[in-house]
Amino acid sequence: MKLSESIGESLEDYLESILVLSQCIDRVRSVDVASYLGFSKPSVSHAVKLMVNQNLIQLDDNKIITLTEKGKEIAQETYNRHLFFSDMLTSIGVPKDIAQEDACRIEHVISKESFEAIQNYYKTTKK
If 56 and its partner were Cys, which of 71, 73, 77, 116 is the partner (CB 3.0–4.6 Å)? Predict the structure, then answer.
């Protein structure tokens, strides 16, 4: 079972985007997340409230978003699945843009057990 199984695909995407943005910029705000994902500011504001309530992120007085340990774990798990599938798909000939889109979908629906099995199989057969 995935760590993120109970939060849903949408919040996984938000957490993953916060993780990626935090690697590029010092302070992540809702407007950065909205711009990165192409979502409206009200949608992001709603998601931010949900993530604060679920202890996935913290929001300081300046509206800077920080991942909690739980949020960071989920974001990293999701991002790792995304990187693996996008790399795997491009290595077998899928165009990069399609591989990215497909990886986005796969990363949310695959179980931890299936992901680990595919990852292990791919590592051992790629040698």
Answer: 71
Is residue 26 a part of any domain in this protein?
yes
Whether residue 17 sits in one domain with residue 50 = yes
Output the pTM of the full model: 0.85
Confidence label for 3 from pLDDT (cuts 50, 70 and 90): low
Residue 41 inside a domain? The answer is: yes
Cα separation, 56 vs 50, whole angstroms: 9
**How would you classify residue 55: left for phi > 0, otherwise alpha for psi between -120 and 50, otherwise beta?**
left
Q: Are 112 and 49 in contact (CB under 8 A)?
A: no
**CA separation for the pair 34, 22 (Å, rounded):** 14
Which tokens belong to 8?
């849903």
**Tokens standing for residue 57:** 């992120």
